[in-house]
Amino acid sequence: xxxxxxGVDGIxxxxxxxxxxxxxxxxxxxxxxxxxxxxxxADSLALALLAQDWVAARNGSLLxxxxxxxxxxxxxxxxxxxxxxxxxxxxxxxxxTLDGLLRGPGLAAxxxxxxYAALGQACAAGGIRHxxxxxxxxxxAETLRMRQAAASGxxxxxxxxxxxxxxxxxxxxxxxxxxxxxxxxxLRAEGLDWVEDPSNRDPATLRARLRRNIxxxxxxxEEVAALLHESRVHGAMRAREDDAIAVELAARVxxxxxxxAVLRPGALSxxxxxxxLCTVAGRRYPAATAAVARLAASPRPATLAGVRLLPAGRxxxxxxxxxxxxxxxxxxxxxxxxxxxxxxxxxLSSAFHAAPGMTLGALGEDAARLRASRAGMARNGWPGxxxxxxxxxxxxxxxxxxxxxxxxxxxxxxxxxxxFCPALALATxxxxxx
Length: 434
Fold this sequence. Notes:
The chain has 434 residues and is an alpha+beta fold.
C-alpha cells in the first residue's frame, strides 16, 4: 500500500492490530497505566493515538513523555508544540528537558542513555510500569542493516525486541511489524501534523544513509519485508537460546537480591556465563566472546568484564564459585536522590529522601572495618568481596547506612528503598514471531 493510502478509517484501521500485538507482547493488569515516549515525529505521535484508544477500552491511563535533548535550535518550541498537539487530543503530556548533553564523540549513544534514564525516572515517579516506544518496521529493517554492517552475531541480528523488562520498567515496542507509511497515513486521516527531525535526512548519520539505500520510504516494499522476516528468524532463534539460558542458569546459579551470585561447579555455555556476567556487572552488552568461552569451558577463579569469580567459601558448597562485582571496576558515588542509579546495578526508590550532600556508592574499604565491628555483618557469612560491592549511603564522607546490612546510623535516612536492577536482567524478552 503506498504511503498515504491507508487512511479512510483513521485510527480504527490500526487499532485492532495494535491491540493484538499488545496482547501478544505481555499480560496487563486491569486498568493499566502506560506512558509513551513521544518525540513529536509521525511514528511516536501515531503510537500515542493508538495507545490512547487502547487504554480507553480498558479503563486505563496514558501519559505522553516528550523529551527535549536541547541539541538543536528550536527544539524547545518543537516539544512544546508536540505537547500541545497531544493535549489537544486529550492525551496528558509531560516535557522532559535533558541538561548537560554536549556535541562530540558518541553523542548518539550518550543522548540515548540520557533519554532512557529520564524516561525511566518519569515513569517511576508516576508509578507507571509500562513504557511504549514507537519503533516500527522501517526502523527494524535499518537496525538489521546496521548489525550486518557491524558483523554482529546471530543474537545481534535479532535486532530490537518487542518487550524488554527489568524490576522497575517494561519497555514495549508494539509497532515493529507496522510500516512507517501506515503510521503517517493514520495521522493524515486524523488531521494531526508532526515534526520532521532534520537529522533523519542528514547523510552524515548512518541511519539516514541506510534509509536512503533501502529506498522504501513507506516501509511497505519487498526489501523491508525481507529484512523484517530475517530479523524475525534471528529473533526466534534468540528467544529459544534465551529460554535455554534461563533453564541452565536456574539449575546452576543462585542469584542474591543484593547483586551477587553463587555458581555451582562444572562447565556451562558461553551464552549463559555472558548473561550472568552482564547481570552482576550491570553491563548491557556482553564481554569478548573468546574470553567468555574459555572461562565457561572451565569456570575458575578469574576476573573478567568487571566481575570476579572466586571460591565461594561459607557462601556456598565445596567447589562453588562466588560471582561478584569487581571492586576496581565499580562506578564513582552519585548523589543520593530519588531514582538515582549507581553502577548500573542499584536504584533508589522514588520515595527515598536523604539529607543534603548524601551520596550512594560502594561500601568498599569500609567493609573490613564494619565486618570486624558489627556482629550482624559477621553473622551473615558474606565474604569480604561481597561486602565491598554493596551499595552504601554516606553523608559528607561518613557512612550512614548499608542496605541489606544493619550498619551505622540508619535513623539518619530510614531504611532506604533500593533495588538491584541491572541493565541486562537474566529474564528474557520476546521477539516478533515468524
